[in-house]
Specification:
By secondary structure, the protein is of the alpha+beta class. It has helices at about 25-30, 45-50, 60-70, 110-125, 155-160, 180-190, 200-220, 225-230, 235-245, 260-270, 270-285, 300-320, 335-345; strands at about 80-85, 90-95, 130-135, 145-150, 195-200, 235, 245-250, 290-295, 320-325, 350-355, 375. It is globular, with a radius of gyration of 20 Å. Bound molecules: flavin mononucleotide.
């Protein structure tokens, strides 16, 4: 346990940079009296259909493989990917129309997200009985190839965990994780060109938290950052189901609202002080921090960092361990360098930062239909 969760407003648990309507005003405004205004398509039914295995027999079509790929974590749930069936397997291309120019100006998170999708796709290909390899296309197009190989591969426990994984953005219960679980997480995250650091020392956690809070305050004061984030928030079930993308506020325990009201209140309540307090509480209720550091700072290695993280997340899920991202200090270049110096990673870029621990599940995120992300060969 990293520290005692401090007092907070029950029912108004907000989330990182992605969904935050902290403050009592929101809770009041979002009360039962206006809930009827947010009626919409059934989010729970859509989520239950989405987050399920496609085959119990081991036979998987191309669309099924893409289904598993799209269940990967991805920044802002923008789903910046397109999938193409090729003679050797599947080609994943970046969809730059879904990039995040403010928070992710160099497309680092976008390529890490492609790595997450590639890892799921590789696990699914193997579950379907074929060996599989991931390669980054060096041509400059930024594509990732997941090639299918010989028959004889077997289903992995990480594959089984794909439909259960989620980023869980709530306060955790403060319980530590055991040594055996820590070792399994380290082992699962092993990917060429990428290192995982697990931080549980209280002093070091507080030092990292300082930088998280610094970056959080900067981002929450930046109108461009706030506007971009707001454009990806889905304030009610209808908006979440209609778009199939973005950050559904209920995933962070935030009451749903009509879009116009949610948008209005977000602007009023997304403030640096509230954000800092929420992140401090969430870090101190976690068991530890996980840091992913790739050998080089280029697209190929950002993909590797995403793969390593996705494997960590699936192993954690299989062990009943939750996680959530805290990438704010990595999104502000000078603070990212400060964090790198603090962690002694030399010239390497810190790619991803998250917390892990124990908590109950939160509502699920959604995805766009598979047909929307498949492109013809
Ligand atoms: C590269 C990358 C960066 C991310 N950064 C953050 C972040 O800073 N804060 C956060 O709350 N979630 C972050 N996420 C998590 C995504 O928002 C999350 O995966 C997405 O909303 C879909 O939700 P799910 O993973 O629960 O399916 C990140 C995910 C990836 C892959």
């Amino acid at each position: 346990m990293l520290g005692q969760p401090r007092d907070f407003l029950p029912g108004v648990i907000s989330m990182k940079h992605r969904t935050l309507l902290a403050g009592a005003g929101v809770a009041v405004a979002a009360g039962a009296g206006i809930r009827w205004l947010t009626r919409g398509p059934d989010h729970d039914a859509a989520a239950a259909t989405l987050w399920s295995h496609r085959s119990t027999t081991g036979s998987l079509e191309f669309a099924d493989l893409v289904h598993y790929a799209t269940l990967a974590a991805n920044s802002h749930n923008a789903q910046p990917w397109l999938f193409q069936h090729t003679p050797v397997g599947v080609l994943i291309s970046p969809d730059f129309s879904r990039s995040l120019p403010v928070v992710d100006g160099d497309a680092h998170h976008l390529f890490a997200s492609l790595g997450c999708a590639a890892e799921n796709l590789m696990l699914a290909t193997r579950a379907a009985g074929r060996s599989s390899e991931i390669a980054f296309d060096p041509s400059g197009a930024g594509r990732v190839q997941v090639a299918a190989g010989v028959v004889g591969a077997t289903r992995d426990a990480l594959f089984d965990a794909i439909p259960d994984r989620q980023c869980t953005r709530c306060d955790y219960d403060g319980r530590a994780i055991g040594t055996a679980d820590r070792m399994l997480l380290q082992k699962a995250a092993r990917v060429d060109g990428c290192e995982l650091l697990l931080i549980e020392d209280l002093v070091r956690v507080e030092q990292v938290l300082e930088l998280i809070l610094l970056a959080t305050a900067l981002q929450a004061s930046d109108p461009a950052f706030v506007a971009e984030l707001r454009s990806w928030l889905r304030f009610n079930a209808g908006a979440a189901v209609d778009s199939g993308d973005g950050l559904y506020v209920a995933c962070s325990g935030i009451p749903t609202l009509p879009t116009w009201l949610g948008s209005l209140l977000f602007a009023a309540f997304f403030k640096p002080a509230a954000e800092r307090e929420r992140h401090a509480r969430q870090v101190r209720s976690s068991a530890g921090l996980a840091v992913f550091v790739a050998d080089l700072d280029d697209r190929a290695h950002w993909v590797q960092a995403g793969r390593s993280y996705q494997r960590f997340a699936l192993q954690a899920t299989a062990l009943g361990i939750r996680h959530a991202h805290l990438n704010q200090p990595l999104e502000v270049a000078p603070i990212r360098r400060q964090l790198g110096a603090l962690l002694g990673v030399g010239d390497r870029r810190v790619d991803l930062l998250l917390r892990y621990g124990h908590a109950a599940a939160m509502p699920r995120s959604l995805r766009r239909p598979v047909r929307d992300v498949i492109v013809a060969a």
